[in-house]
Amino acid sequence: MILEFNPKDHARLTQRRIKRLAKLFLNPLGLCHLEVKLDRLIVHCTEAWMIDSLMDDLDYISEAARIILGAQAISLYFAKEEVYQTATAPHLPIAS
């Protein structure tokens, strides 16, 4: 039996995966707005301390984002500006 997903199904599945990731790193990742574009996890934070805290756990978050979301890169945003980006696996180049 082959299941076919429509765009709405894909969006719902992605949102559930994002929620699963946010629950693993509730503070502060769960406080930030998360979205996936292409193969990149985009994290929008409203406070600078959130970015600092995310940077401390970025290795763990990167691994979880790769496994749960299939993300190949992570971009951190503060005040609508990208402040950091990294690949989720050490050997992957970052595509802009």
Structural description of this entry:
45% of the residues lie in helices and 25% in strands. It has four helices and four strands, in the order H-H-E-E-H-H-E-E. The protein has a four-stranded mixed sheet with strand order 1-2-3-4. Helix 1 runs antiparallel to helix 4. The longest helix has 18 residues, at 7-24. The radius of gyration is 14 Å and the shape is globular.
Write the layout of secondary structure elements.
Blueprint: H1 7-24, H2 26-29, E1 33-37, E2 40-45, H3 48-56, H4 58-69, E3 73-78, E4 81-87
Parallel strand pairs: 2-3
Antiparallel strand pairs: 1-2, 3-4
Helix pairs in contact: 1-4
Please state how the strands of the largest beta sheet are arranged side by side: 1-2-3-4
Largest sheet: 4 strands, mixed
| Large-scale geometry | globular
Low-confidence stretches: none
Strand element count: 4
Estimate what percentage of residues fall within beta strands. Answer: 25-35%
- SSE succession: HHEEHHEE
Helical residues, percent:
40-55%
Quick check: average pLDDT? 90
Summarize the structure.
The protein is an alpha+beta fold and 96 residues long. The protein has four helices and four strands, in the order ααββααββ.
